[in-house]
Amino acid sequence: MSLFIGLAVSIAALYLAFRQVPFGDLMAYLKSINYLWVIPTMLLALAGFMLRVYRWQLILESSQPVGFWQAFHPLMIGFMLNCILPGRVGEVARPVILNQKEKVPFSTGLATVAAERVFDAIILLLLLSWMLTVVRIDPVLEIHFSGYILNKTLLLSAAKGFTRLSLLLLAGIVLVGLESSRNWMNRWFLRVPKLFFFTGPAFQDLVYQRFSLVLVRFTLSFSRGFLLLKEPWKMAGCFALSLLIWGLNVLSYYTMTLGAPGVELSFAELSVVMVIVCLFISIPSAPGFWGIWEAGGVFALALFGVSAKDAAGFTLANHAVQMLPVIVVGMGSAIVTGVNVWQVSRQADR
After folding, report:
1. Distance CA 239, CA 59 (A)
2. Which of 25, 30, 125, 315 is 20 to 30 A (C-alpha) from 61?
3. How many whole angstroms from its chain centre is CA 26?
C-alpha cells in the first residue's frame, strides 16, 4: 500500500510540475538529448554511493565494524525507499536493517546516519557560503513551477532553515557524543521521578524504570554512534570522503549536460545548480522530490540564462537518471538480502 501511495503522489507531483510546460516541446527536448551520456552519469552517481558506503563504514568502525557489503545493502535500500516513499523513511530504515542483519543496536545505527548527515551538511554549507558570495541572484527573478513561486526570498529562507537545522543536529551530536555533557543530561533524567514527590514510591519507581532508565540507556547506545569524535583522523577521512562524494555528484550533473542541448554550464555553475536543488528539496515534498526538484532546477538554470523549456527538460531527465540506478540497485539489495522493504518501512514509520 505504501508503494502505491508513493507512486500516486509522485505521479501527481510530476503532473503539477509540468502541466504548464508544452508537452510537445518537452517531448521534443527529451528526444534531442544524447543518451549515451546517461551511462557515465549513472556510473558517477553510483560511484558516489560507493564512497558513501566507505564513509558509513568508517563511522560505524568506531562502535561496531561491519563489512562493505553489510553496509552497502542497508544504505542502498534506505536511499531507494527515500526515492519511492514519503517522509525520508529510508533514513530510519537503514539502522532497522543493520539491526536485523548485523545486530548493531538501532539507536547506534541511527546515530551513525545522523553523523553522516552532518558531514553532508558541512559540505553543503561551505558550498552555500561560496555561492552567496560569488553568484548574483536577481531579486526580481521569479519562477512559477509545480505550484511553487521560486525567488530569491524563498531561496534565502530555505538556506536559513537548512542552516538552523544543520546547527541543531550538530549541537545534538556534541551534546550526546561528549561524555561530560551526556553525563550531565543523564543526571537530569534520573532526577525526573523526584518531580512527582506528591505521588507514592510505587509511581516514582515506575517513572524511574519506564522513563529515566530507558532514556539513559538510549543516550548511551546512541552515543556509541559518535565515537569517531574521539578519533580526529577518522573525522578527517570522513570529511575528505564527503568532498569526493559531492564532487562526483556535481561531475555527474556535468556529464549529463554534455548530451543536453541548450545547457552549456561550467563545473562551478553546475555546483550552484546542485546546491540550489538541494536547498529546495529540503522543503517537504512528494516522494523522490518530484516537482520541487524540477522547480529548483528551472530556477537555478534560469540564473545562467537557460530557457525554461530546456531547463525543464534537462532537469526532468537528470532527476530520472540520478534516481533510477538507486532504485534498481536498492531493489536488488533487498532481493539479495531477503529484506522485506515494506515491513521495514512500516517499522521505520513507527
Report:
1. 11
2. 125
3. 28
Query: How do beta strands 148-151 and 142-145 pair?
Result: antiparallel
Model's pTM, two decimal places? 0.85
| Distances 119 to 65, 125, 210, 252 between C-alpha atoms, Å | 19, 10, 34, 20
Closest by CA to 247, choosing from 38, 40, 48, is 48
In the chain, where are the structural domains located?
2-162+234-349
What is the CA angle 115-153-251, rounded to 5?
50
Does the pLDDT value for residue 75 go beyond 80? Answer: yes
Under the banding of pLDDT at 50, 70 and 90, the label for residue 6 is very low
pLDDT (tens digit per residue) in 192-247: 998 888 888 889 899 889 899 988 888 888 888 888 878 889 999 999 999 999 99
Residues forming a β-bridge with 148: 145
Q: What are phi and psi of 13, to 5 degrees?
A: -65, -40
Side-chain half-sphere exposure of 119, counting CA atoms within 13 A:
27
| Residue linked to cell 564527503 | 242
SS3 state at 105? coil
> Mapped to the 3 state alphabet, what secondary structure does 252-282 carry?
HHHHHHCCCCCCCCCHHHHHHHHHHHHHHCC
Q: Which tens digit of pLDDT belongs to each residue from 239-282?
A: 999 999 999 999 999 999 999 999 999 999 999 999 999 888 87
Q: How many CB atoms lie within 10 A of CB 69?
A: 11
Residues facing residue 144 across a β-bridge = 149
- CA-to-CA dists, residue 25 to 12, 28, 30, 108, 311, angstroms: 20, 5, 9, 50, 12
Question: What does the H/E/C string look like for 133-201?
Answer: HHCCCCCCCEEEECCEEEEHHHHHHHHHHHHHHHHHHHHHHHHHHCHHHHHHHHHHHHHHHHHHCCCCH
